[in-house]
């Protein structure tokens, strides 16, 4: 099978492989956060000396609510993408809804410098993307990759994109940090069927920005406007150097 010229874009905004939803063993049923009960204290009649106390009381619940909101948003995002076949069945309205939820989650990103975090290390499964080249929607379903993975190692600044059955194509890349959350991507070698090495063309380049990162979910955006949502499946995985 001829290798798609966009195969390298899994890391960028117009990737080539596609990615199905995460295996059931990695579903996080605990993502739904239990609502936090708050007590409605009426402080309107308290003297001015109590106003200082009011400030200290209100700060801590706000902090708790921020954590709760992130968990709820993650659950809503996962629920929204679950029936969309990694994005292949998404309508424009679905894409807009997912993008809005992703943007809300990005606003509460707990990892401000992902390229300095070991949470980024390991093998991720792509569960949603807007990249049609990765989803391979132009092919019959039988000829589309069932699952797509992306691995990143921060210490070596290496990345790897992998397709599953039926073709098992792979590509590796060097990463160059542009800031604490964005990298330039230069692909160096394709492997057809995971076995036959082919040097990547010089034009096989892109950029990737990591906009949300925790121990189980990553949201990234590429330089061509595509959205990528991935779930961690193997934090110990090492990319070939």
How would you describe the overall organization of this protein?
It contains three helices and nine strands, in the order H-H-E-H-E-E-E-E-E-E-E-E. It has helices at residues 49-81, 92-106, 132-135, and strands spanning 122-129, 148-153, 158-163, 170-177, 182-192, 196-199, 205-213, 217-222, 227-234. It is of the alpha+beta class and 241 residues long. Helix 1 (49-81) packs antiparallel against helix 2. It is globular, with a radius of gyration of 21 Å. The chain starts with 48 loop residues before the first helix and ends in a 7-residue tail after the last strand. It has an eight-stranded antiparallel β-barrel.
Report the sheet with the most strands, covering strand number, pairing sense and barrel closure: 8 strands, antiparallel, barrel
Query: Into which percentage range does the β-strand content fall?
Result: 25-35%
Total strands: the figure is 9
| SSE pattern | HHEHEEEEEEEE
Give the class from helix and strand content and strand pairing: alpha+beta
Mean pLDDT: 80
**Cross-sheet strand order for the largest sheet:** 1-2-3-4-5-7-8-9
State the low-pLDDT regions, or none. Answer: 1-67
Distance between the termini: 26 Å
> How many DSSP H or I helices?
3
Fraction of residues in helices?
A: 10-25%
Overall geometric form: globular
What is the radius of gyration computed over CA atoms, rounded to a whole number of angstroms? Answer: 21 Å
Short description:
The protein has 241 residues and is of the alpha+beta class. It is built from 3 helices and 9 strands; from the N terminus they run ααβαββββββββ.
């Amino acid at each position: 099978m001829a290798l798609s010229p966009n195969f390298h874009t899994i890391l960028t905004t117009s990737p080539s492989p596609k990615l199905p939803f995460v295996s059931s063993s990695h579903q996080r049923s605990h993502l739904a956060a239990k609502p936090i009960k708050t007590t409605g204290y009426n402080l309107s009649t308290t003297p001015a000396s109590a106003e200082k106390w009011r400030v200290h009381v209100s700060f801590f619940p706000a902090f708790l609510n921020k954590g709760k909101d992130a968990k709820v948003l993650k659950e809503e995002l996962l629920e929204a993408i679950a029936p969309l076949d990694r994005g292949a069945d998404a309508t424009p309205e679905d894409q807009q809804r997912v993008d809005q939820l992703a943007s809300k989650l990005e606003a509460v990103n707990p990892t401000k410098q992902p390229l300095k975090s070991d949470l980024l290390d390991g093998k991720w499964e792509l569960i949603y993307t807007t990249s049609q080249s990765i989803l391979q929607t132009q092919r019959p379903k039988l000829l589309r990759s069932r699952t797509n993975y992306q691995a990143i190692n921060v210490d070596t600044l290496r990345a790897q994109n992998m397709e599953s059955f039926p073709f098992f194509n792979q590509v590796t890349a060097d990463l160059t940090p542009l800031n604490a959350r964005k990298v330039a991507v230069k692909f160096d070698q394709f492997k057809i069927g995971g076995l036959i090495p082919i040097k990547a063309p010089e034009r096989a380049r892109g950029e990737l920005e990591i906009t949300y990162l925790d121990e189980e979910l990553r949201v990234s955006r590429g330089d061509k406007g595509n959205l990528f949502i991935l779930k961690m499946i193997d934090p110990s995985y090492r990319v070939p150097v």
